[in-house]
Design brief:
SET_dom_sf, three-stranded antiparallel sheet, SET_dom, S-adenosylmethionine-dependent methyltransferase activity, 17 helices, 42% helix, alpha+beta, binds S-adenosylmethionine, four-stranded antiparallel sheet, 518 residues, zinc-finger
Length: 518
């Protein structure tokens, strides 16, 4: 039971800033503010020449602690999307359209949602209503919606417009790029000529397009994009120290993934931490317009994991590493025999291997095992292509109800061992790149304990009471604690949340089994 920080009575309200300290009444919250304010917000905003604004811990922050919870300044469909309802973001087929503007929605109740107001009102300059024809494919008409919702704030919500206008757009770097041309055609020209919206200058429109790309967070589940006034201040790090989730109102929740000591920068990852250095650098350069110089990016071994290394073809144990630096490699050199490979050759080889990966039959464990076998003499054990496949396989082995896959109980001993090994390998990487209470670790912990629990069930009765059995159960209990804590932070509409509920239920069973040893 949550207790009031002042009187200890049951508390139903929390401080709106830190969302941690609870109160039984507004009066007690007010009374407590004087002492609470120094503890409340765990971060402060700072500024640097190189990065602009960023957040720094103003006190030590514990793993799992909420650093900030932020409601969206703007919510909209992703730039590249199939037609979706402009209120709830579910895919639409054209069976219902807004009676005022013509944009497809999923039903009359979505027509009354205020989120839809900006494009609804701004589309009414047209002599006829908006007509959408292509439904089962990406539709470029939707690229204008989120920019329109940003521009709408200029007249209708000056405070939000001001917050948005302070955000980084990198407009100068975007001019003369292909992206700028696409935005000119699909957003600027579309607004002017199709929607007849002429109240914003091309520069204003391009600026909000930049702001969306640089600051927007993709929200899984509803497939939307959100722009958040505080969360956008988080800097990038290739080993982030926070995790992010979205609640059912699509507020963003940023938590500490690990302990963050006072004075440390608070970071998130703008890329997938399981990508190799070249891919992370490319993404950051082309969509966020900066070169990451974190210690991981400078380390040719990627913190000892060799996530991007290739195997040397000239000697049995050597690994080829980028030189002179992973950020701008020119040549790859073996760390054992000094053999060399051209950067161009490496790029072409990785491109071809990447194509093989894309063409892997989705969900085919046999094809995935064959991919791992065929790349074992060319790529390092942990190479990001291989780790990507291992991650998928760790979740596929023993997943019931999916075509051609057996239930955990039906897996042979070898395949059960294989699942466990894959989970441990991926977890070891996640420990380095997504440390602490990250979603990836939560998912892998769940899969690992599932394999270990199945091994426990298969033990002969006489061994079930042995110290080894207890150790297996204790590892499963720890893994289920981690998995349920991490995954239950996801939004209830996410599959991860359902897995979290399952982990929580299974945790009770494992704890009961362990108690029999005492
Ligand atoms: C989402 S914004 C972060 C807030 C931004 N610094 C501001 O002042 O509004 C992303 C931009 O911040 C800068 N940035 C973020 N992380 C960085 C990093 N690790 N190194 C250099 N620049 C970074 C880049 O300019 C990037 O495009």
């Amino acid at each position: 039971m949550t207790k009031c920080a002042v009187c200890g009575c049951p508390a139903s309200q929390r401080c709106g800033k830190c969302h941690l300290t609870a109160y039984c009444s507004k009066d007690h919250q007010k009374q407590h503010w004087k002492s609470h304010r120094t503890q409340c917000s765990p971060y402060k905003m700072c500024h640097s020449e190189e990065m602009g604004r960023y957040l720094e811990a103003s006190r030590d922050i514990l793993p799992g602690e909420i650093i900030l919870k932020d409601s969206p300044l703007v919510l909209g469909p992703r730039q590249v999307t199939m037609p979706v309802c402009l209120s709830c973001f579910t895919p639409v087929n054209g069976s219902y359209s807004c009676s005022l503007c013509g944009w497809p929605l999923c039903g009359p109740e979505c027509q009354t949602v205020v989120l839809h107001n900006p494009e609804c009102q701004l589309s009414r300059n047209r002599p006829i209503k908006v007509q959408v024809h292509k439904f089962m494919q990406v539709n470029q008409m939707y690229e204008c919606i989120t920019p329109l919702r940003c521009l709408w704030l200029k007249e209708h919500d000056p405070a939000r417009w001001s917050a948005l206008s302070q955000m980084e757009s990198h407009l100068e770097e975007r001019v003369n790029t292909e992206l700028h041309e696409v935005n000119q055609a699909n957003v600027v020209d579309f607004l002017y000529h199709y929607l007849k919206v002429t109240s914003f200058t091309p520069e204003e429109i391009h600026t909000v397009c930049g702001i969306i790309d640089v600051n927007g967070f993709e929200i899984p589940g509803p497939n939307a994009i959100g722009i958040y006034g505080k969360a956008c201040l988080l800097e990038h790090n290739c080993v982030p120290n926070t995790t992010r989730t979205f609640d059912s109102q699509l507020n963003i929740v940023i938590r500490a993934a690990v302990k963050i000591t006072k004075g440390s920068h608070i970071s998130t990852s703008y890329t997938d931490p399981m990508w190799g250095t070249a891919n992370r650098q490319l993404h950051l350069k082309t969509s966020k317009y900066f070169k990451c110089t974190c210690s991981r990016c400078h380390d040719p071994t990627e913190m000892g994991t060799h996530l991007s290394s290739l195997r040397c073809g000239q000697c049995p144990l050597g690994l080829m590493l980028p030189s002179p630096s992973p950020i701008s490699p020119q040549i790859w050199v073996c760390n054992s025999c000094s053999a060399k490979l051209d950067q161009q050759y490496v790029e072409e080889f990785l491109k071809q291997t990447g194509e093989k990966l894309v063409n892997l039959k989705e969900g085919s464990l046999a094809a995935s095992e064959a991919f791992l076998k065929s790349t074992s003499s060319k790529l390092s054990e942990n190479h990001y292509y291989r780790s990507d496949v291992k991650l998928a396989m760790a979740q596929m082995y023993g997943r019931a109800g999916v075509q051609n896959k057996s239930d955990l109980h039906e897996l042979s001993k070898d395949l059960l061992d294989r699942k466990e090994q894959l989970c441990r390998e991926v977890l070891a990487l996640a420990d380095v790149f997504s440390p602490g209470e990250s979603r990836l670790r939560g998912l892998m912990k769940y899969e690992l304990q599932a394999a270990c629990m199945e091994k426990f069930r298969r033990l002969p009765k006489k061994l079930k009471a042995s110290p080894q059995s207890k150790a297996i159960l204790q590892e499963c209990e720890e893994a289920l604690k981690d998995a349920s804590t991490i995954l239950l932070r996801e939004s209830p509409i996410q599959d991860e949340y359902q897995l979290g509920l399952q982990a929580e239920a299974e945790l009770a069973d494992v704890t009961a089994l362990i108690s029999k040893f005492r």
